[in-house]
Design brief:
With 409 residues, the chain is α+β, with helices and mostly antiparallel strands. The chain is built from 12 helices and 21 strands. A hairpin with a 6-residue loop joins β8 and β9.
Length: 409
């Protein structure tokens, strides 16, 4: 792949995705296989003004070994080093970048029951720290090819060709393949905000999803929660950043207890390296009460039972069927990409920063609102070519939001 395009992509992540500020620290979490790109990204962060870039390397095989074989009492709790990292984040508020490159089958062979036990305990401890700095920091997730990921997406290509093709698709979907990526994102963000403003002006009470695949789902929205699109702002300093590169969504958080009906997935879900395919979820009074999957059903069941709120919805996201990602007619086996090819929902934690006047509310006032809080947030794709979404406004009017999979407003 053209080195200049890759460098421009790294610059896009640094200055638009994370929007690093002069003198701010940055953290990059990445698989060791992506080291060449991380070097370029680190350079771009320093050029943009970062005072220090901390690299936190990961390795899937070591992760499996630790999860399966380490002393469960030790790995289920934050150690002193992990606690110190969180305390440091609370103090300095770094920009955080995650590089998504995982092999979709990375967690084959992991002990699911043991892994769930670890996540349930450690997730709660981690959340206590992250609640103190998450909303104050910019963060960004972006993709970089790994060989196993590329070969999963393009199994019929030779190794180098598969990596080259995945690079091409990543840059296309990230609007970094042609022209100036930063200018491209300015235009794209403006278009998403226009849709967001239309949704907020409608003052919607509910959404009704239907599709020929059997989806028939009713989701009620909270009156005091807004729609957001693409970029977000940090809570206090109001620094705008792009959490996902790419992104195509307008999203909001629903009433935790007001979802009912059934919804069918339209793309595979890569959950912590485990593929869950062709699944359905039935909701009653907001809770996922029945799930089925052709593949990965046990992982799906464990996912919705990870804590007491993992079975409730935390997000409704609208994405046009004819999005740049979906138009490639490729399954990426990565939630970052596949969710932005399709309307999706998310089980688990919601976005309290979407509550009107959030920055002025106390923790007790936020907790009193029926917005979900969990240690997980798992997106799954439900968009289809014939998906219909009808909204009902708070004054009782019905509005066709999506028809045949695309925007109607």
């Amino acid at each position: 792949m053209d080195e200049l395009k890759i460098r421009n992509y790294a610059k896009l992540i640094a200055v638009v995705g994370a929007n690093i500020q002069k003198g701010q620290e940055a953290i990059i979490v990445a698989n060791i296989e992506t080291a060449p790109f991380v070097e370029i990204l680190t350079e771009e962060l320093y050029k943009a003004g970062a005072s220090f870039v901390d690299i936190q390397w990961q390795n899937n095989k070591i992760g499996i070994l630790t999860s399966n074989l380490a002393d469960i009492n030790k790995v289920s709790h934050l150690n002193d080093v992990e606690k110190a990292r969180h305390e440091h984040n609370i103090k300095v508020l770094p920009a955080r970048i995650w590089i998504d490159s995982d092999d979709p089958h990375a967690m084959d062979g992991i002990d699911l029951k043991r892994r769930s036990e670890i996540l349930a305990i450690k997730g709660k401890e981690t959340r206590e720290y992250r609640d103190k700095y998450d909303d104050e920091c910019q963060w960004c997730i972006a993709g970089v090819p790994s060989l196993k990921w590329a070969k999963t997406v393009f199994p019929n290509l030779r190794d180098e060709e598969a990596i080259e093709k995945l690079w091409e698709y990543i840059l296309i979907t990230s609007r970094a393949y042609k022209g100036d990526p930063i200018k491209n994102w300015e235009i794209h963000d403006k278009n998403l905000v226009n849709h967001m403003n239309l949704l907020n002006n409608l003052n919607l009470k509910s959404l009704h999803y239907t599709s020929k695949n059997g989806t028939d789902l009713y989701v009620e929205l909270l009156e005091n929660v807004i729609w957001e699109a693409g970029g977000e702002n940090t809570k206090t300093k109001k620094i705008r950043f792009q959490p996902n590169i790419p992104t195509e969504e307008c999203f909001t958080s629903p009433n935790k207890f007001k979802t009912h009906g059934i919804v069918y997935s339209t793309k595979p879900l890569n959950y912590n390296g485990i593929l869950i395919e062709n699944f359905s979820i039935r909701f009653e009074e907001g809770k996922a009460v029945d799930v089925h999957a052709e593949k990965g059903e046990e992982a799906l069941k464990q996912m919705i039972n990870l804590d007491e709120n993992a079975c409730y919805l935390g997000e409704c996201a609208l994405v046009a069927y004819h999005s740049p990602i979906n138009d490639l007619n490729t399954i990426f086996f990565s939630t970052l990409y596949d969710e932005n090819a399709s309307c999706h929902l998310a089980l688990g934690t919601a976005f309290p920063n979407l509550i009107k006047g959030y920055e002025n509310l106390s923790k007790e006032e936020i907790d009193a609102i029926s917005i979900n809080k969990s240690i997980v947030h798992t997106d799954f794709m439900i968009g289809s070519k014939d998906l219909s979404i009808v909204g009902t406004t708070r004054d009782g009017k019905e509005v066709q939001i999506f028809k045949d999979g695309d925007w109607s407003i």
